[in-house]
Amino acid sequence: MRVAIVGSGYVGLVAAACFADLGHEVVCVDNDSAKIAALVAGEVPIHEEFLPELLTRHRGKRLKFTGSLPEAVRNCEIVFIAVGTPPTPQGDADLSYVEAVAREIGLQLNEYAVIVEKSTVPVFTCQRVRRVVTLNASAPIEFDVASNPEFLREGTAVTDFLYPDRIVIGADAERAAQILKRLYEPMTSGEYYRQPNAIAAPNASVRIPPPLVITSTQSAELIKHASNAFLAMKISFINAVANICEAVGADVEQVCQGVGLDSRIGQRFLRPGIGWGGSCFPKDVMAFRAVAQECGYDFGLLEEVMRINDEQRNRFVRKIRNTLWTLKSKRLAVLGLAFKGGTDDIRESPALALIEELLREGCTIAAYDPAAMDRVRAERPELGITFCANPYEAADAADALIILTDWDEFASLDLARLHTALKYPIVVDGRNLYPPEMMAEKGFMYASVGRPTAAPSHKPVLSATTVNGSTR
Ligand code: UGA
């Protein structure tokens, strides 16, 4: 099928590469000419596993890039809108990019097409897109507007797209529903997964083929907002439970295991930490709250979900302060700058928010992140962070190591080397990557989230310690 995707951000670009891998002819449109030039030249603008392979496989063949929306729209039967919907100062979604694209599509449409909303948008956006396209069409043209929300996570975007828990198609017209069903047929028929060069399943528990859910456009729009809000709520809930665990000396990991084994609750997205961030949850929870308000429903629960999240960061700063006593002039080694592991995306990063707070308190920061350092260097030079080549360089002579994201690399550190590098063997872990008892055994004072702080029993922690037998 011939597919145009307007917007080449995380969702647009990954969807374009994956649709090409499913066998479709895809053209990706963006008004950022530098980005298009880079994509044409073979660059990969985001850190995403399997994306470089897919772009190499299809670039210039089934996957093309252009700055010309008219060219793309006039040749395609399906036009996806995957542009940004950032929050306004009031918290609702800024839909001006969606409207601008809808207007241009209206001006260019010359034969039937399905216009599909893939960006996360408030309920009724499909209806508004329909109206804008109709108002701008130069001649009466038949078209449909549908919603096909995307549920991929950054860091695992390609496999999330190709092995989704479900595919949701919100279409009010049968013709549009049939076209979108055909688009996903390589997945729903299982055919894609039988191909020898298909991207491999991330684990054995993925559902093949994925179930297809056909709904009205309003329901599909709500499915997306409700899903993100629920996941954010689940994380805020477990963070609140973690705080109770700290108060009573319980271990939140044990609590999570016991709670998550209830199949009605599930283990996933039940990891406590420093709070959720990123370009989706903060924006979408606020936007869903605004949607509810507009419909006359006071969704106060979402207010609380956001409040717990903000408080979680403040608590973590207090935890670092409690562990180190004072923060002024302390040199801290920080692992993780992005909003989570596996990505270079620093939008709404809890790690950066925490670093800002630590800098305000007078700390100096030596940081390491496997993917996000270039971005922080370019976009946040005012922070004055020292960037390091690896975790041990960051830890060198530091008063403590602070873990802020959950990269696999951070969960498998050479602890003896780390111990030697640090000035004091103190680790404050915002992602619970290590068992506390093990860290104590290895000679660390180890504070984490929702678990008792562990300290080695055989030597004082807050004084200069002996390392490998010699006094530092
Ligand atoms: C999220 C959703 O998970 C996707 O389904 C959705 O498609 C996407 O938003 C979107 O709307 O585009 P993403 O923002 O990429 O995906 O990242 P997540 O893996 O969901 O993590 C979000 C935040 O929650 C991160 O800061 C992460 O560290 C935190 N988190 C996640 C936890 O603190 N605990 C958990 O158990 C899971």
Q: Would you mind describing this structure in some detail?
A:
The chain is of the alpha/beta class. Helix content is 43%, strand content 14%. The chain is built from 20 helices and 16 strands. The protein has an eight-stranded mixed beta sheet with strand order 3-2-1-4-5-6-7-8, with helices on both faces. Helix 11 (217-248) runs parallel beside helix 14 and helix 14 crosses helix 15 (350-360). The longest helix has 32 residues, at 217-248. The protein is elongated, with a radius of gyration of 24 Å. The termini are far apart. Residues 460-472 have low confidence and may be disordered. The structure holds uridine-5'-diphosphate-glucuronic acid. Residues 120, 150-154, 228, 231, 235, 269-271, 273, 276-278, 280-281, 339-340, 350 line the site of uridine-5'-diphosphate-glucuronic acid.
Order of adjacent strands in the largest pleated sheet: 3-2-1-4-5-6-7-8
What small-molecule ligands were found?
uridine-5'-diphosphate-glucuronic acid
Low-confidence stretches: 460-472
Mean pLDDT: 95
Q: Which structural class do the helices and strands define? A: alpha/beta
Strand content: 5-15%
Intertermini distance: 67 Å
Number of strands: 16
Percent range of helical residues: 40-55%
Nearest-angstrom radius of gyration?
24 Å
- Sketch the major β-sheet: 8 strands, mixed
How many helical elements?
20
What is the molecular shape? elongated
